Amino acid sequence: MKFPKIFTLKEIASIIKAEFIGDENFPIYGTNEIHRVKKGEIVFVDHPKYYEKALNSNATTILINKKVDCPEGKSLLISDDPFRDFNAINGYFRDFSLKNQMIATDLDIGDNTIIQPGVFIGNQVKIGKNCIIFPNVVIHDFTTIGDNVIIQSGSVIGGDAFYYKNRGYSFDRLKSVGNVIINDNVEIGSNCTIDRGVTDSTIIGEGSKLDNLIQIGHDTVIGKKCLIASQVGIAGCCIIEDEVTIWGQVGVASSITIRSKAVILAQSGVSKNLEGNKTYFGYPADEAKSKLKELATLKKLVK
Amino acid sequence: MKFPKIFTLKEIASIIKAEFIGDENFPIYGTNEIHRVKKGEIVFVDHPKYYEKALNSNATTILINKKVDCPEGKSLLISDDPFRDFNAINGYFRDFSLKNQMIATDLDIGDNTIIQPGVFIGNQVKIGKNCIIFPNVVIHDFTTIGDNVIIQSGSVIGGDAFYYKNRGYSFDRLKSVGNVIINDNVEIGSNCTIDRGVTDSTIIGEGSKLDNLIQIGHDTVIGKKCLIASQVGIAGCCIIEDEVTIWGQVGVASSITIRSKAVILAQSGVSKNLEGNKTYFGYPADEAKSKLKELATLKKLVK
Amino acid sequence: MKFPKIFTLKEIASIIKAEFIGDENFPIYGTNEIHRVKKGEIVFVDHPKYYEKALNSNATTILINKKVDCPEGKSLLISDDPFRDFNAINGYFRDFSLKNQMIATDLDIGDNTIIQPGVFIGNQVKIGKNCIIFPNVVIHDFTTIGDNVIIQSGSVIGGDAFYYKNRGYSFDRLKSVGNVIINDNVEIGSNCTIDRGVTDSTIIGEGSKLDNLIQIGHDTVIGKKCLIASQVGIAGCCIIEDEVTIWGQVGVASSITIRSKAVILAQSGVSKNLEGNKTYFGYPADEAKSKLKELATLKKLVK
């Protein structure tokens, strides 16, 4: 994602004390995950299995733990611990600071927007016009909220991603330096949790409506006019296209794509990509028709 | 439900600029949904499929998008968009205002009731005696709470209903102007969400106990002495009769009735009405005995 | 658990107006549940079915509703209502008071720990160094938190246990006088609820990481380096050993033991103890391999 700062390859190499391959003035605009990385951004890779994918991705700088040939027009940062150094670099691009005031002084807020009591708003947050932020909502740093948005009481927007590297002796947290973008006309219920992206944005598309106690993981992108019922959990890095309907207590595993106008019946567990314009049911979620046949077959067997 | 104001048919017609059929002084006490509407109240209907039901309901005023014969002793409001106009009328009956103080000055509170810090209390709220409202609870406008009630930290009482009309180009929210009634000796855990009724009351019956992270939808009525475990989700317009036990992570679809003393085992999904005095399991929830037979049968088939 | 006060048998008997059998100076250090009770502590029993178990437990004082022979080296308290009297005794050992300030003045807090706005902290709480407590978190009385702990926004630590005695005419709450212990390097997501022990401690082991909207019941002990995904619910009195991984929306019934390095796949329901080093799936949760075979078999039957 676009960060407020630009660095050169040499500057980044010096921050993490790494060797580099490429022009010392090679420009770096930010960091990102492999699925969403763009020109000008760094991606990290620390397992030979993923070297090719990282080197051939849209990333123009690859933070890697082996000295390999540098692809044409790209640059490399050589590190003995790319995860640790990626974390360190992230801290330089964005400053998530822990201030001790309820509402940061740099809040950019539109006309007719109402912030009720008990709301916490971090730094560099933008909120459009005609919004209502109900009591005790927490909005973390860098969140961007459009017009006509309603966020009901107790919801937490922009919490840290649940993203760890298993070091054996411990789980090391990957710092999340992305943000949350909530587009126009979105409504979010009470006590929801929408995590911010690790390096990119978690996005709730225009006109989508979320009920209460919903979990949206880091870097997940929800399309336009989706309807998501209470207690649904969507893991990180998912893509939910436009006009998808997800009923109560459904779970969606990480990195899943659900195509436009799919309907997921209540309590289903989605563990693989789903085509659009169909109705799904069960765990693992399958087309509702075939799942219901299975249930009927089983019932007959017993009788 | 009883609203604080009374209007005449002519006054309501003038508010929404609608034609009316009936005595211009015909009294209107409020609005309601078709399942709970009473004499003196308006119901709306915008689909021919439901015209008969609405005209024959307990409603004495029907807001309808076709000029039909007015039933004896009733009145009609003719509108090209009953949903839009129902919303507009609701705003006149009850004033949900967004004040900027933690505890409204008109709070009616009983002896020995303790409100801990960080609690938000909206307008026209009543709380009985010997209650404990733990930190950071949010209690919205018009909520009524009995005696000896405990609400643990972070719960949200009286949030907006999740109720939209699909306009094709957008989902339009039906304004919720009902409330939540929590009767004597009820206890509610932490970070629960209990939505207010759309036009009527969401009710938690005397002596019922709710664990943490529970969702109760709009207009749902929970009976006396029910026990509801953590992370249960009950959708809108359900009736849960007395002494029902619902174990963890159960989901109940909207408009379901569960009769007295039913027991629903953990993680079940209730998608049809259930008789009382029985134990249920699975999704769709069925009598536990037959569901367990199915599981055993399936297991044998594999071996 | 260790309480701050010590009583004699005679003193306790006088508080609850009960007959006692044993030396009047017999020392009593606290109360506890039968599974965790230790020397010096009281256990209560009110059903003949459990008399033997209680009398032979580690408890050295048994609060019982029948005059039985006192085991060697122990003492008895004879009560017509052991539940009521256990509750009364608990109130004497620990004083959970309801103060009206956001952060208690007796907070014991380490260097570099940051408490963000809107946080409530009860009495006798200890927080180590280098911790971050995000906005609107609630930490109840007697909670102990180690070093390098992160608790994200809106989580509630140390709420009352969901533990009732069915009296027929009502559910009577067992007062929870235990606490929550969160060890070093633990991270807890947003809007989680971790209940305190009834008489002992609910414990989150060193280095364990919890995602958002997770429920941990009273007296449950989570081991070291566990990974628990969003919307998991673990009931009371469970033991989750070290390095267990629990994916999203899993439910674990009360008093279950899950051995070290077990992996529980998403949405599973755990209703019996599970061995370590295996992967489980489904409800009731079984080894994933056999569950997947069952699903495949069922699918074939239909085709």
Give a description of the structure.
The structure is a homotrimer of 303-residue chains. With 303 residues, chain A is α/β, with parallel strands linked by helices. Helix content of chain A is 13%, strand content 29%. Chain A contains 4 helices and 35 strands. Chain A has a 10-stranded mixed β-sheet, with helices on one face. An 8-stranded parallel β-sheet of chain A has the order 8-11-14-19-22-25-28-31, with no helix packed on it. In chain A, a hairpin with a 4-residue loop joins strand 34 (279-281) and strand 35 (286-287). The first copy, chain A, is globular and about 70 Å long. Chains in contact: A-B, A-C, B-C. The interface between A and B is large, with 36 and 42 residues.
Uncertain runs of chain A: none
Q: What is the architecture of the largest domain in chain A at the second tier of CATH? A: 3 Solenoid
Can you identify the CATH superfamily of the largest domain in chain A? Hexapeptide repeat proteins
Interface with most residues: A-B, 36 and 42 residues
CATH topology of the largest domain in chain A: UDP N-Acetylglucosamine Acyltransferase, domain 1
Give the strand tally of chain A. 35
Order of neighbouring strands in the sheet with most strands of chain A? 9-12-15-20-23-26-29-32-34-35
Shape type of chain A: globular
Number of domains of chain A: 2
Biggest β-sheet of chain A: count, sense, barrel? 10 strands, mixed
How confident overall, as mean pLDDT of chain A?
A: 94
Number of helices, where a helix is a run of at least 4 consecutive DSSP H or I residues of chain A: 4
> What is the share of helical residues of chain A?
10-25%
Q: Note the quaternary state here.
A: homotrimer
GO molecular function (chains A, B, C): N-acyltransferase activity; UDP-3-O-[(3R)-3-hydroxyacyl]-glucosamine N-acyltransferase activity
EC number (chains A, B, C): 2.3.1.191
Keywords (chains A, B, C): Acyltransferase, Lipid A biosynthesis, Lipid biosynthesis, Lipid metabolism, Repeat, Transferase
Protein name (chains A, B, C): UDP-3-O-(3-hydroxymyristoyl)glucosamine N-acyltransferase
